[in-house]
Design a protein that fits this description.
This protein is of the alpha/beta class and 282 residues long. The protein has a 10-stranded mixed β-sheet, with helices on both faces. It is 40% helix and 22% strand. Keywords: ATP-binding, Kinase, Nucleotide-binding, Transferase. One of its GO terms (cellular component) is cytosol. One of its GO terms (biological process) is pyridoxal 5'-phosphate salvage.
């Protein structure tokens, strides 16, 4: 399996491609990583160094990959944080090139816009680009609850609201939606839910809520979900496997009191999760 992953990258720590690439590789996937930014560390530290690339730089790298004649062997494209609409346009052009070479290829878009408690944290114009262009072009999307609400225009207070919001987003294009960090009226205070929807069916998975604040877990979640869905073609199965791995990764990180997720130290969680959780049809 080959995946073209177009995301941000940091030299220190694990966000963007620095969070998504290794888990996929650990699962035996060949990853072609194209970086949209190259920073010393993620911006959550308040200070960083490095630079942001532009759309033409992304397209140049994709053109170089295409010149190797390998796009027909590309099974999927993964994207996350988009620093500008011009980068987003370059990503969608890359998706179109891959699909032209391999119509069976999947596009998984993690529509990074904001989060509960933080609001929108991307540049102006990006939320609209995600809603109007990136999400409709995707086969799979992995929004958190805040992003689901924005994309659907529905405030998700209950499970029924969340299911309606997923259906509304699916009507715009993506066949499969994975909602991360979901907390509704039915979710116990000490737990957190994930919800997957495909073909009018829905599956919920509930894990204990961990006490930690780290960056990059969403990037790893999208990567794992894409790989497992591509292999099983089942949103429910992909949810169960990806969620187990992410919980193990975050549990190890919380136990260590680490500031960065333990992508390398906890790598066995990607191939053999230490704990699994029931996937419930809802």
């Amino acid at each position: 399996m080959n995946v073209l992953s177009i995301q941000s990258h940091v030299a220190y720590g694990h966000v963007g491609n620095a969070s998504a690439v290794f888990p996929m590789q650990r699962l035996g996937v060949e990853v072609w990583a194209v970086h949209t930014v190259q920073f010393s560390n993620h911006t959550g530290y308040g200070a960083w160094r490095g630079r942001v690339f532009d759309g033409p730089a992304i397209e140049e790298l994709v053109e170089g990959i295409a010149e190797r004649g390998v796009l027909p062997a590309c099974d999927g494209v993964l994207s996350g944080y988009m620093g500008s609409a011009d980068i987003g346009t370059a990503i969608l052009r890359a998706v179109a090139r891959v699909r032209a070479a391999n119509p069976a290829a999947l596009y998984c878009c993690d529509p990074v816009i904001g989060d509960v408690g933080r609001g929108v944290f991307v540049r102006p114009g990006i939320p609209e680009f995600m809603r109007d262009h990136a999400v409709p072009a995707a086969d799979l999307i992995t929004p958190n609850q805040f992003e689901l609400d924005y994309l659907s225009g529905i405030e998700t207070r209950t499970l029924a609201d969340a299911k309606a919001a997923v259906a509304a987003v699916q009507a715009s294009g993506p066949k499969v939606v994975l909602v991360t960090s979901l907390h509704t009226a039915e979710t116990p205070d000490d737990s957190i839910d994930m919800l997957a929807g495909e073909g009018g069916l829905f599956w919920r998975l509930r894990t204990p809520r961990l006490s930690l604040a780290v960056n990059g877990a969403g990037d790893a979640t999208a990567a794992l979900f894409l790989v497992h869905y591509a292999r099983t073609r089942s949103a429910g199965e992909a949810l169960g496997t990806a969620a187990a791995s992410i919980f193990g990764l975050l549990r190890r990180t919380a136990e260590a009191g680490a500031r960065e997720i333990l992508t390398v130290a906890a790598q066995e969680e990607f191939v053999a999760p230490s704990r699994t959780f029931p996937v419930e049809a809802v």
